[in-house]
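Students often ask why inverse folding is considered easier than folding. One informal answer: many sequences map to the same fold, so there is more than one right answer. In these notes we will look at a single instance of the problem. The structure comes first.
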């Protein structure tokens, strides 16, 4: 059934429920469901949960689901699980339904949930939980409804890195419970990395016993700096993870094997599979430090860079070491999939190490990629001998890949990974960084971009499309020291993952989802989840005016509290309330920040207002169309650093974009120069979107400062220009991303691409 029909039925049904009333309640009075079920028919009346409630089970194998439901209902009723099928709420199996599918029928007399399997029943329970009102003291009353539902994708995942910062068992379980409410069914647990080993391995006790603890590092310094600068305690390192030993302070923790079993059991009850990732052969430094014989040369200490020295793959003992670790991991994690990592391997040592070189000669391996592939195949055979299936990051495609491997695609700058992997017969899980790495902070456009991301491109042949298992949202924890910060990054973006993973791609729409997402935030409030207040809207980062100007900023979330400053300081919970437009007659810096009613902070925006005259045009001789563009293959930290004695290439472009001929490097800096040709005297609004930094100057003045290493961020700024030519310079640098665009924004906020009619350069300039 399509969305529109659901909507009409919903409104009609509410009218039916409140049939005698003079006014028809709006759709807002119905519970918000995320993900949107396939079919929902609201019917007349409501069901009130009795204070003492019986859960009936049609099949004894549903006992764990009965227990889970009784726990979930605890705020509303004292529920007992009966050993008969009859109950106020009945859980049943119907093998004619899809395995994860369910039917939920809530009538005035009770509720019945039928699932295609116990997993289907769990999904029905998730819907029931969303039908119930949230919040302390909320009444256990739900509207009568018939829901028939099943997911579009089998993989609806969440990845959390617990290596860079540690989060304890209780925190992980709170995440699992939220996942279950959203029908997210895979928890990918990144348990080991350069900065921490978090899983007890009994045959190598120092891995966790020592490798679970570390000294403060450069990321901690960044976090503490942000805590102070941004007045945000979420960046403080929780005291519970500090261990003082004499004069030494260590930081960290690890999960005992018993704790891992508890987490896995908690997840299983909620229909969630847990996928352990033991990243190898790179990202292994914390293990190498305590077992130095596993690497090629004397181990280094972590330098703060992503690529550390890997395991020595020339030593047979290393293979045994890895297998012994995995043997214990298999004992703890019953799910068939395990994750070997395989990303970002620094292969330099392998080219110098006599043992690695001997291995390469002996096995006929041409280079480091082939050596990694050899190791991965060996581990994969070991996994398969233990009835496990291997997942790895898409770097595995740099070597030969076995079609039984599942590829997790994270690198948007290697877009061919998906077609390459599926063509080889590999299954693929999607978590491309720009859209699904939630450790990358949000900007004003990120919710919409993630919502509109095309999971299954039409260009992929149908047989290959079937290999896309689903989608996942990831948080890497380098700069995420507290659980509160974890939640801030995951929510509300995880609601989008839930919707995209459950609904068929054609059914997911920003227009339909965004209002539900905002309403779902009320539930997150009631459940104490520290979600990010969606971005403030209706402003440009830089506004110009000739006489006076009124601020326009608004917050999409009803109930959020806005506070502001004008003195350059960060708004805090004691700053003045922003209750509506402020009029400026002179230059000003307005900073507005959103707060939850309980004082928890959100992000804030800085809006620069500048009083100015229209800039006069520049006299230029003969011109040619387009902007002169030169690029440099180097990693730059800032836009103004881009340059060098000799450019690596140059060309003329019609519009601002990453020139095709300059693509393919991991790090590049680009400078676009020329003139913008404006048709009339006006205040022009520009939008500059880039991944990473970009900086737009017109007439030598900064119009948009979108500088710094970041994922895709869109910023807008204005310039008051008289008709004619104005010098334009746009600087950009990229480190993993490769996107820069410049557009005009019209008075209605619509984006208008800028083509060749807008740009030119002086004819005598060299090209
Ligand atoms: C990754 O983000 N290095 C998988
Ligand atoms: Zn070696």
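Output (designed amino acids):
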């Amino acid at each position: 059934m399509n969305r529109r029909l659901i909507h009409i039925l919903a409104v009609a049904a509410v009218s039916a429920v409140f049939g005698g009333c003079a006014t028809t309640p709006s759709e807002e009075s119905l519970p918000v469901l995320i993900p949107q079920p396939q079919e929902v028919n609201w019917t007349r009346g409501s069901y009130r949960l009795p204070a003492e409630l019986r859960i009936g089970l049609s099949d004894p194998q549903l006992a764990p689901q009965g227990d889970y439901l009784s726990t979930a209902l605890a705020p509303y009723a004292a529920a007992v699980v009966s050993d008969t099928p009859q109950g106020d709420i009945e859980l049943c199996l119907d093998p004619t339904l899809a395995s994860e599918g369910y039917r939920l029928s809530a009538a005035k007399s009770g509720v019945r949930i039928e699932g295609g399997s116990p997993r289907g029943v769990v999904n029905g329970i998730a819907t029931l939980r969303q039908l119930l009102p949230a919040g302390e003291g909320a009444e256990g009353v739900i509207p009568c409804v018939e829901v028939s539902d099943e997911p579009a994708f089998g993989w609806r995942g969440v990845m959390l890195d617990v290596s860079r910062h540690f989060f304890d068992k209780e925190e992980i379980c709170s995440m699992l419970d939220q996942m279950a409410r959203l029908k997210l069914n895979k928890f990918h647990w990144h348990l080991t990395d350069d900065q921490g080993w978090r899983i007890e391995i009994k045959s190598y006790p120092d891995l966790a016993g020592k490798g679970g603890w570390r000294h403060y590092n450069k990321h901690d310094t960044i976090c503490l700096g942000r805590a102070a600068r941004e007045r945000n305690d979420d960046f403080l390192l929780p005291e519970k993870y500090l261990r003082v030993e004499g004069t030494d302070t260590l930081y960290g923790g690890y999960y005992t094997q018993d704790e891992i079993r508890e987490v896995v059991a908690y997840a299983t009850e909620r229909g969630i599979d847990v996928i352990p990732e033991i990243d190898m052969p790179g990202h292994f430094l914390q293990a190498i430090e305590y077992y130095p014989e596993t690497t090629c040369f004397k181990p280094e200490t972590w330098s703060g860079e992503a690529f550390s020295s890997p395991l020595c793959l020339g030593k047979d003992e290393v293979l045994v070491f890895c297998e012994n670790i995995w043997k214990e991991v298999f004992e703890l994690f019953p799910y068939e999939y395990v994750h070997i990592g395989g990303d970002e391997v620094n292969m330099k040592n392998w080219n110098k190490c006599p043992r690695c070189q001997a291995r390469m000669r002996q096995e006929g391996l041409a280079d480091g990629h082939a050596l990694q592939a050899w190791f991965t195949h060996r581990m994969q055979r070991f996994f398969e001998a233990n009835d496990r299936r291997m997942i790895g990051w898409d770097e595995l495609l740099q070597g030969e890949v076995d079609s039984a491997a599942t590829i997790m695609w994270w690198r948007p700058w290697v877009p061919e990974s998906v077609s390459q992997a599926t063509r080889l017969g590999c299954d693929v899980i999607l978590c491309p960084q720009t859209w699904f790495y939630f450790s990358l902070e949000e900007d004003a456009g990120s919710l919409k971009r993630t919502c509109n991301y095309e999971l299954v491109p039409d260009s992929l042949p149908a047989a290959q499309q079937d290999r896309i298992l689903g989608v996942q949202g990831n948080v890497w924890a380098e700069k995420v020291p507290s659980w509160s910060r974890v939640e801030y990054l995951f929510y509300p973006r995880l609601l989008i993952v839930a919707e995209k993973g459950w609904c068929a791609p054609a059914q997911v729409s920003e227009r339909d989802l965004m209002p539900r997402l905002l309403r779902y935030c009320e539930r997150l409030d009631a459940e104490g989840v520290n979600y990010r207040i969606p971005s403030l809207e209706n402003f440009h980062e830089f506004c110009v005016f000739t006489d006076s100007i009124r601020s326009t900023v608004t917050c999409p979330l009803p109930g959020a509290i806005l506070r502001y400053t004008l003195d350059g300081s960060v708004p805090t919970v004691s700053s003045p309330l922003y209750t509506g437009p402020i009029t400026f007659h002179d230059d000003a810096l307005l900073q507005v920040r959103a707060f939850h009613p309980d004082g928890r902070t959100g992000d804030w925006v800085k809006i620069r207002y500048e009083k100015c005259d229209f800039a006069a045009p520049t006299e230029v001789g003969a011109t040619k169309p387009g902007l002169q563009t030169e690029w440099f293959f180097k990693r730059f930290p800032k836009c103004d650093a881009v340059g060098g004695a000799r450019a690596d290439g140059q060309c003329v472009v019609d519009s601002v974009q990453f020139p095709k001929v300059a693509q393919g490097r991991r790090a590049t800096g680009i400078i676009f120069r020329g003139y913008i040709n404006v048709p009339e005297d006006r205040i022009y609004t520009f939008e500059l979107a880039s991944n990473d930094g970009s900086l737009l100057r017109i007439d030598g003045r900064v119009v948009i400062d979108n500088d710094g290493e970041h994922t895709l961020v869109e910023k807008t700024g204005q310039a008051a220009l008289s008709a004619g030519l104005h010098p334009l310079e746009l600087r950009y640098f990229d480190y993993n991303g490769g996107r820069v665009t410049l557009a005009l924004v019209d008075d209605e906020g619509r984006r208008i691409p800028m083509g060749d009619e807008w740009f030119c350069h002086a004819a005598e300039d060299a090209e």
